[in-house]
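INSTRUCTION: Work out how this chain folds

Token vocabulary: learned, describes local backbone geometry

RECORD BEGINS BELOW THIS LINE
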Amino acid sequence: MTTLRIVLCTAPATAVADKLGAADLAARLVDERLCACVNVMPGVTSWFFWQGKVDRVEEALLLIKTTAERLPALRARVQQLHPYEVPEFLELQVADGLPAYLQWAIAAVQPERS
């Protein structure tokens, strides 16, 4: 097992009012070094049960790569920035991968040293 984690998070494909869309959310999370990389997969149609009825919305799926150590800060920031009342935030543990990629991803979320 590695310390690398993948977080699944859906978000509106575009900004809604003054709330962030998927690309803006991804850019902010990477810029703040809460994750090494975010893949934004547009064109996701989500069907879900919410507030007593079945709903349908067009979204983008974010595949967020981070470390176990950065998960609490990432989770808190997603809750702050995300336009949904209850955002999807599912954490998956990475069993293994290309060593050079794992090293890069782990190094990318380390705080900068001055």
In short: The chain has one domain: 4-106. Residues 4-106 form a domain with the Alpha-Beta Plaits fold (CATH 3.30.70.120).
